[in-house]
Amino acid sequence: MLIRYCCESIQTHVMTTGMDKSIEELLLAKDRRRDLRMQRLERGCVTLSFNLNIPGLPKSNDSFHAFFKTCLVELKNYLLAHRIVTNKETIHCETDVAGDFFLAEIVDSDYTAIQIKQVCESFETNHPVGRLLDVDVVDEKGEPVSSGKAKTCFFCNNAPAIYCMRKQAHDYAAMRMKVELEISKYQEQRKRERICKQLVILATQSLLHEVALTPKPGLVDRFDEGSHTDMDFSTFLNSTAALSVSFQKIANFGYTFSGDDLKEALPKLRLIGLEMEADMFAETNGVNTHKGAIFLLGFSIFVSAHLLSEDSFTNEKFVSVIQNMNGDLVARELGKKLYLGKETHGEVCYRRFGKKGQGIRGEIQAGMPCVFQKALPVLHERFDSEEVLNDKILNKGLTHALLAIISENDDSNILYRKGEEVLEELKARAGVCMQKDEGENSDSEYEALIDFCNDKRISPGGSADLLAVSYFMYGVNRNLVKRK
Amino acid sequence: MTPKFKAQAGTFESSDIMVLIEPVAEGSGRQVDISSTVMLQFEEDLKACINQVLDVMEIENVHLIAKDKGALTPTIKARVETAVKRSLGIQEGTL
Fold first, then answer.
1. How far separated are the first and last CA of chain A, in Å rounded?
2. Same domain, yes or no, for A365 and A301?
3. Residues 6+ apart with CB under 8 A from A463
4. Across the interface, which of A1, A5, A17 has its CB nearest the CB of B77?
5. Looking at A81, A115, A148, which one is the last position of a domain?
6. Per-residue pLDDT tens digits for B16-59
7. Contacting residues of A for B79, CB less than 8 Å apart
8. Total beta-carbon pairs less than 8 A apart between chain A and chain B
9. Is A225 in a helix, a strand, or coil?
10. What is the total count of domains within chain A?
11. Structural domains of chain B, ranges and CATH numbers in brackets
């Protein structure tokens, strides 16, 4: 027996109840939903619907709608993962006074309606805010499939939901406030996951693109070991893979760090850094490929994550936070004996060359001028107008940025091993290459620089680390900072 | 008044109620059957609410079946009223 419906008819007759206009509209919307389901039932399909449980009115707003959209994608993936297929052509998805609503028919399913309902229930149960989600399954005969389980009230988490609903046990304003809070907490968590994931991707990319940049003066690249004998391209790939694991830890730590003083994060950051060094050495047979990069990228990921969590990231803010966190790093770590035993290379450099020998600590203390004043402007100029950064574009832009860094950077490694004169010559040569970058002789100048480094066995590893950080900072600005 | 047609109003959507009405012979009285996802303790409330609408509309002989999905009082009243009107033929949308 088929009963016909007329959904307009309820509208005009409110004799006994004196029905509220909003309830009338709500019931009409529900009638429309039922009609949509009926159309699909006539084709003999199991239907699946999804809506949010929103107490009170309005049933939807921008925040609810965005949440609904997010959860709908999750639901669709969940169904797909369980090989429950919906007919894309007959999907209905709209927002009306009854709120956001999705309706689909299940096609060619190996599952019974009850099994589909069980999958939907596991989706709700496993979802962090599953209590706000309502996935209903109606079988081929038009009967709603029920698990028979009574959900507890999301507000008091005590009585069955239906009990509190019928009793009107809770204040609507309070319930809505709780719903909004749960949704915003969930969206905040998703934002954290998205940002941290992106930071890890960028940090890993930065190391990969740095080593892949070819040719490079004195450094390991795709085809050449430069001035090195104990490492090659694969050593860097192995090291990068090892470090990428810990980037996630740093990003999460930075994003969730809530202390008043970021300096309080330093011991834990150093601890992660030491673990990364051990991982690196384990994967490189004891060769130091990325010690400087661990230090620089570690800080950069931490501070970026922290500022992005507060929506307050700017390059200027980043620089001032890095400086505040490190304070007078040079005097503290190079001016006095920090490690037992013989002087470190850094300490020797600082004792012999003073300001020029401050190395990476000096660079940090000065707010990474090589990155922000030298390399980043180059990368913006080269990359901003490009939609996709392919190998050719990356190679040109990163080479130019590397030269900008080398021409400025007092790399303490070179200073220690080769002395001041060689360092100054390297800086000057890099400066010349940069100026001729667009000119006719650019290739030959660059080749001469590479030969110079190979002959003198110079490896501007410190500049390579700064190039990686520059790529990372460029990526943060490009991908994660809202353009104003 | 006595219902003349089979009729129904409402849906199986959450927070709604499906009301079915079957005409019965004059003098058979009221029979109200309820199946609810709501706990049994609300059955009497639900019945009272339905009877109230039937009283106002002066329906004495009827078989009414309600399948409740957690509807609130205004919804229940509106759905019962529409179902009754359809069964009386004073509102469109009946069988």
1. 61
2. yes
3. A370, A402, A405, A406, A409, A411
4. A17
5. A148
6. 999 999 999 989 999 999 987 655 678 888 999 999 999 999 99
7. 27
8. 94
9. coil
10. 2
11. 7-88 (3.30.230.10)
